[in-house]
Write a structure and sequence with these properties.
- It is built from nine helices and seven strands; from the N terminus they run βαβαββαβαααβαααβ.
- The chain starts with 15 loop residues before the first strand and ends with a strand.
- The chain has a seven-stranded mixed β-sheet, with helices on both faces.
- It has helices at residues 26-33, 46-58, 96-106, 120-129, 131-135, 146-155, 170-179, 188-203, 206-219, and strands at 16-20, 38-43, 64-68, 81-87, 107-118, 159-166, 222-228.
- By secondary structure, the protein is α/β, with parallel strands linked by helices.
- 42% of the residues lie in helices and 22% in strands.
- The chain has a single domain (6-228), classed as Rossmann fold (3-Layer(aba) Sandwich).
């Protein structure tokens, strides 16, 4: 399940991509399948990196390297990547401005940056429905407004290209989890909706694709922003 529209990254053989906050490797796998030459997945959770490594190996994708690090201090050289992805990470970091500076530092002039994070009002509803959602270990520590984040990244010198929302069908699922937070693992409604999402992910029927495309602009769980670093 990819949040970023890989077509907008214009991936080509030989390109090197950084997936900062790669988690279990969904976008790392996606960029290699989408035509990139090599991907570096970076995350501070060793367990997630181990899962990502296994998943890519199972898919026969070997052109990948892995770095365990804090996203605010990435031990990689500057201007090393043609494309940089930061998906669903910034909301976990108090001093996210340091992460943004690293994203800019690591990106080659002329390169593209894709950032994803929870959309403002669907996330706001989650916080309103459940204190447990807010306070879970490793959870979200802030909510971003689209224009404010765009201006922060533009202030680094990157040019805004485009943006969209994704995963509208997932928003009700998280609201349901928040409503039944203390018993969400036992809730039949939550479990039913989860089964529906898994079914949709694998079957991709035309009617759910149309429904999500129509609902994404106002109900999309994730916000995606694309930027380009100017050539000096």
């Amino acid at each position: 399940m990819l949040t970023i529209d890989l077509a907008r990254l214009a991936l080509r053989p030989g390109m090197v991509v950084l997936d900062l906050g790669c988690g279990e490797g969904r976008h790392a796998a996606g960029v290699l399948q989408g035509g990139a030459g090599f991907v570096v997945g970076a995350d501070m959770e060793r367990g997630a990196l181990q899962v990502a490594r296994r998943r890519l190996a199972d898919l026969g994708l070997s052109a990948a390297g892995w770095v365990c690090c804090d996203g605010r201090r990435v031990p990689l050289k500057s201007a090393a990547f043609d494309r940089v992805i930061c998906s669903e990470m910034l909301e976990h970091v108090v001093d996210h401005d340091l992460v943004l500076q690293e994203l800019d530092r690591l990106l080659l002039p002329g390169g593209l940056l894709a950032v994803t994070l929870p959309s403002y009002w669907p996330e706001k509803v989650c916080w309103w429905l459940s204190r447990g959602y807010q306070q879970q270990p490793g959870g979200h520590v802030k909510i971003f407004r689209r224009n404010a984040l765009r201006q922060e990244i533009e202030a680094l010198g990157l040019k805004y290209l485009d943006g969209h929302r994704a995963h509208a069908l997932h928003t009700p699922y998280w609201w349901l989890q928040c409503v039944f937070w203390d018993r969400r693992h036992r809730s039949l409604l939550v479990r039913w909706y989860h089964r529906f999402l898994v079914w949709d992910m694998f079957k991709k029927p035309a009617w759910t694709r149309w429904l999500e495309k129509w609902a994404n602009p106002f109900l999309g769980k994730s916000l995606v922003l694309y930027f380009q670093k100017p050539v000096a």
